[in-house]
């Protein structure tokens, strides 16, 4: 997230007390079944439990029956077998950034398998690959890979877990050069609904390889590790920051629409638009002289910035620049919980001036602090891969509209209704039909098509093959049959 918010010290403890009182499970049978787990198991009666179920979004909250901190594949297998035996729901948690709390199952009383301690990172510089445990967070991965001279393409928020991020796509500031995180997955290990550890790649369980790379966030099993293709970091990168007069927004978007598709693939840009604010963050994978030359056409057509910065840095320092957390929290990430709700739109041919005015009018009048990010896609990210279920390949930019920081439930409910009503109308008039599943949204209509398009039927067939009893389910999981 770009903006860091503080806990609401009144509402949060009340929420924890209320939800823990709702837990209903045979704790004796559960603890007995999980007795062989090598990692820690934490139940609602443990005094640390309330703090452990707080993650990034505190608007949506659920209380599990148990948190299992697995330390290896066997712990995950035991957890799955116990969930089947006790007829419990089960969910995996990697970083705790599911926008709708699906990492906690999307409901109360599920078993949550927390993968935090499955966090090895084994780098093979010769083959340019890295085996990365699913419990790692992006800041840790960037730090360790950069020390060895490598990177993977992924998002900018350090506390995001690689598991859900990569399984749902995973886009960030190197995406136009190297694609989505999911595009760089070579193989995976996954515990299936029978408690069996599966090896998955383009040749072995290739149908799962297709499904997991784009639609794998919690629907098919628990992925415990990935092998990624990793890329050498440039000797120097250039972070870019531009501020603009908000009155020049139409000219800026015209430049974005016209020049954006042809920009050097070493560049990724993100426009931030809010009430009274207009800026661009960007990264160029090379030295500042080259960055200025690569940005020349765009800046000649954009309005003159009120301020501009080209900052030569190491790659990892650029990660710190765009993390928007204290620098020491990048390699040691932690949550900064706050209330928020997000909507997602994907734009193929650029927004019209009418669409931009509509967005500005909404941002100026919505009842809570709200901003929109417009992330430039294209380049390698737009190359279609038939071995992947990720469909968002014909995209000029993706929009994340995020409302946050309301002061009461009444204000929050009002803000969310405004976001939902606006999102439905805006998408029907101005954007493509599709939305990005990593910004998952339980209020999105026809999410099956908006997230997965023509692949949804095939995804159901694969789900029915590997999880016919729908063990791994949440409100927007891939079902075992059509509705």
TrEMBL record:
Keywords: FAD, Flavoprotein, Oxidoreductase, Signal. InterPro entries: BBE, FAD-bd_PCMH, FAD-bd_PCMH-like_sf, FAD-bd_PCMH_sub2, FAD-linked_Oxase-like_C, FAD-linked_Oxidoreductase, Oxid_FAD_bind_N, Oxy_OxRdtase_FAD_BS. This is Glucooligosaccharide oxidase. GO terms for molecular function: FAD binding; oxidoreductase activity. It comes from the Eukaryota. The lineage of its organism: Eukaryota, Fungi, Fungi incertae sedis, Mucoromycota, Glomeromycotina. Residues 60-233 form the FAD-binding PCMH-type domain. PROSITE patterns: FAD_PCMH, OX2_COVAL_FAD, PROKAR_LIPOPROTEIN. It comes from Glomus cerebriforme.
């Amino acid at each position: 997230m770009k903006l860091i918010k503080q806990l609401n010290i009144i509402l949060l403890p009340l929420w924890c007390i209320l939800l823990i009182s709702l837990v209903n499970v045979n704790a004796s049978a559960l603890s007995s079944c999980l007795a062989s787990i090598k990692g820690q198991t934490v139940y609602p009666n443990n005094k640390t439990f309330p703090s452990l179920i707080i993650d990034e979004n505190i608007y949506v909250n659920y209380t599990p029956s148990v948190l299992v901190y697995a330390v290896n594949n066997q712990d995950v297998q035991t957890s799955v077998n116990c969930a089947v035996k006790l007829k419990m729901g089960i969910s995996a948690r990697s970083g705790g950034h599911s926008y709708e709390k699906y990492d906690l199952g999307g409901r109360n009383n599920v078993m949550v398998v927390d993968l935090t301690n499955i966090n090895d990172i084994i780098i093979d510089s010769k083959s340019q690959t890295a085996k990365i445990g699913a419990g790692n967070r992006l800041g840790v991965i960037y730090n360790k890979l950069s020390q060895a001279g490598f990177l993977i393409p992924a998002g900018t928020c350090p506390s995001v877990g690689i598991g859900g991020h990569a399984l749902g796509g995973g886009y960030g500031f190197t995406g136009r050069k190297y694609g989505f995180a999911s595009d760089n997955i070579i193989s995976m290990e996954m515990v299936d609904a029978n408690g069996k550890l599966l090896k998955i790649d383009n040749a072995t369980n290739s149908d799962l390889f297709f499904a997991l790379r784009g639609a794998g966030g919690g629907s098919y099993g628990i992925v415990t590790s990935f092998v990624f293709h990793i890329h050498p970091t440039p000797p120097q990168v250039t972070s870019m920051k531009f501020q603009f007069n908000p009155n020049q927004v139409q000219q800026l978007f015209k430049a974005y629409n016209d020049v954006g598709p042809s920009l050097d693939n070493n560049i990724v840009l993100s426009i931030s638009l809010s009430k009274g604010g207009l800026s661009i963050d960007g990264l160029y994978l090379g030295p500042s002289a080259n960055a200025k030359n690569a940005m020349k056409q765009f800046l000649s057509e954009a309005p003159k910035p009120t301020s501009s910065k080209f900052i030569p840095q190491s790659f990892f320092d650029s990660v710190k620049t765009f993390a928007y957390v204290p620098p020491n929290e990048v390699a040691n990430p932690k949550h900064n919980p706050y209330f928020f709700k997000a909507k997602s739109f994907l734009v193929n041919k650029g927004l019209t001036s009418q669409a931009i005015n509509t967005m500005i009018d909404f941002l100026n009048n919505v009842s809570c602090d709200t901003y929109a990010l417009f992330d430039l896609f294209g380049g390698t990210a737009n190359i279609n891969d038939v071995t992947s279920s990720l469909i968002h390949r014909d995209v000029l930019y993706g929009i994340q509209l995020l409302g946050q920081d309301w002061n009461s439930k009444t204000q929050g409910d009002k803000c969310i209704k405004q976001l939902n009503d606006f999102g439905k109308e805006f998408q029907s008039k101005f954007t493509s039909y599709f939305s990005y599943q990593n910004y998952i949204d339980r209020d999105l209509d026809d999410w099956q098509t908006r997230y997965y398009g023509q692949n949804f039927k095939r995804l159901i067939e694969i789900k029915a093959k590997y999880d016919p009893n729908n063990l791994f389910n949440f409100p927007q999981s891939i079902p075992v049959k059509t509705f």
